[in-house]
Design a protein that fits this description.
212 residues, Glutaredoxin, 3-stranded mixed sheet, 9 helices, globular, single chain, mainly alpha
Length: 212
């Protein structure tokens, strides 16, 4: 079976990424996929949230409307705690802190460490209504993922981690990535269309035929 290399651009606050990540996990072993994880932050500060949505309360309500659509297309609709996030006592988080956490984990535990904490942060955010812009939450999630808290905290604060996030952003610009999730099959240039597992499987088989 021909191995495929994928570039997976994602944001931890993205509900569509939450749907896609477990599907890619299911397919990774089946197709022997080589998946590279790339952070792509939609808004990297509260000010950008306000600029994009008009206000932080409006950002929450707009995004939770997106969550409803994501839940309708999910393999696990009960994983979306919309009411919990609506009632949460913090502003809807921007994605930069989680992106930094993913890159800090990658420096400690490689690509699998990145994927592991990305999925855990998404669960904390979407299923548990936790504030993944809070450094204490990030450290707790990292500890639960088996990462040493002190080393993780040091990585989170290291300017090199922010540069790694910016490097992913620069790659996204070069590849004309404008939304998440975006998955590019490096071998063919194809972009996978997020959807049910069987649809994704068919797309990967088509890519394998092209490079066989």
């Amino acid at each position: 079976m021909t191995r495929l290399t994928l570039e997976f651009f994602h944001d931890a606050v993205c509900g569509w990424c939450f749907n896609l990540s477990p599907r890619l996990r299911a397919l990774a072993g089946e197709f022997d996929l080589d998946i590279h994880h790339r952070t792509f932050v939609l808004q990297d500060s509260p000010a950008q949230m306000v600029a994009a949505f008009g206000s932080l309360p409006r950002a929450r309500e707009t995004i939770l409307g997106h969550w409803a659509a994501c839940r309708a297309a999910s393999d696990d609709p009960g994983a979306f705690d919309i009411d919990g996030m609506r009632a949460a006592p913090f502003a809807y988080p921007h994605g930069l802190p989680a992106a930094l956490a993913c890159k800090a984990a990658e420096r400690l535990a490689g690509r699998e460490g990145h994927w592991r904490i990305f999925d855990a942060l998404q669960r904390a955010h979407i299923s548990q209504a936790r504030n993944i812009a809070d450094p204490e939450v990030l450290t707790a999630v990292a500890r639960d993922c088996g990462l040493a808290p002190r080393a993780f905290a040091q990585g989170l604060a290291d300017p090199a981690t922010r540069r790694a996030v910016e490097a992913d952003r620069a790659m996204a610009r070069r590849l004309q990535v404008t939304s998440v999730p975006t998955v590019i099959v490096r071998d063919t240039g194809a972009r996978l269309v997020n959807g049910p597992l069987e649809d994704l499987r068919a797309q990967l088989r088509a890519c394998q035929r092209l490079v066989a």
